Amino acid sequence: MEHTVPYDPRPATGPEPVRVGLVGAGPWARTMHARMLGAGPETVLSAVWARRPEAARETAAPYGAAVAASFEELLDRCEAVAFAVPPSVQAELAVRAARAGRPMLLEKPLGPDLDAARQVADAVAEHGVVTQLVLTKRYHPVTREFLRRAGEFEVTGARSCYLHGAFRAGALATPWRLEQGALLDLGPHLLDLLDVAVGPIASVRGSGDPRLWSELTCEHTNGAVSQASLSGSVGLDRARTRVELYGPAGELTYDTAELDHEECWPVLRREFAAAVRSGTAGPIDAARGLHLQKLIAMAAGGALRTSRDTTWR
């Protein structure tokens, strides 16, 4: 049954924080989404809904948030929705949230495959709702300074990697990640950085097994060529994300080894709240997510398997 309660999308007056409902209560929902949204002052965590009520209560309790008995109740209790669930679940529920007129904080990838991602982006465009993607690194000041400098740097070629071992065991070794591998999970981050730092990507060729190691070759509209290595299954002590740009002026490097990702969350929260209040999405939105998913599908030769993972909390 679809949500039918009328919703007034006009921005509220004054500095009232945005009331955000959270879908999901797994490790990422608890340690990032709930903590970020509950910290304020731009947002408050108003409600949590998950398949397991006990997990929802555990996630909601530190912030005094309500526990919704259904997705429809969550929509009634919030102005905007944040998703921390597998891609297949997000894609289905995001379409319903768009129909209800709710702004959304979306995880990447938008969906488990290109068709699902397109349905989300189409629903967002049809209903005119504000969206923002949790492309974590894009909210860090160091990343933004690198991209600013890259805009002034003539690039001939680039090398990049996003590598870690989190798919081997632990909270991130979820069924959809184990099935689809690094291309669908880590690919959006790295392709996004290359698409901005080097120039718009015209084509992507992929090789390897995404569950072990993917190697991507990107051709950019400005004639530059870049390489991207992706893996979530290698034995590293910590994640390694690095982008190296090369050109006539020499080298420009971006490395996340010393980045404190805690600096990302206040920026993400502030910009999402501002977008909701203004009614205008920024550049890191559902349309951007669809663009990245098209690149992923191109890299996979359109053959990414569709995961119907429902093991979420």
Describe this structure in words.
- The structure is a single chain.
- With 313 residues, the protein is of the alpha/beta class.
- The protein folds into two domains: 18-136 and 264-285, 3-Layer(aba) Sandwich (Rossmann fold), CATH 3.40.50; 141-258, 2-Layer Sandwich (Dihydrodipicolinate Reductase, domain 2).
- 36% of the residues lie in helices and 22% in strands.
- It has eleven helices and twelve strands.
- The chain has helices at 27-39, 53-60, 71-76, 87-99, 114-127, 141-150, 175-180, 182-185, 187-197, 264-278, 286-299; strands spanning 18-23, 43-49, 66-67, 80-83, 104-106, 131-133, 157-163, 201-209, 213-220, 225-231, 240-247, 250-255.
- The strands form two sheets. Strands 3-2-1-4-5-6 form a six-stranded parallel β-sheet, sandwiched between helices. A six-stranded mixed β-sheet has the order 8-9-10-7-11-12.
- Helix 4 (87-99) packs parallel to helix 5, helix 5 runs antiparallel to helix 11 (286-299) and helix 9 (187-197) crosses helix 11.
- Residues 1-13 and 302-313 have low confidence and may be disordered.
Keywords:
Dihydrodipicolinate Reductase, domain 2, disordered N terminus, oxidoreductase, 313 residues, alpha/beta, 2 domains, Gfo/Idh/MocA_oxidrdct_glycsds, six-stranded parallel sheet, disordered C terminus, Gfo/Idh/MocA-like_OxRdtase_N, 11 helices, six-stranded mixed sheet, Oxidoreductase, Rossmann fold, 36% helix
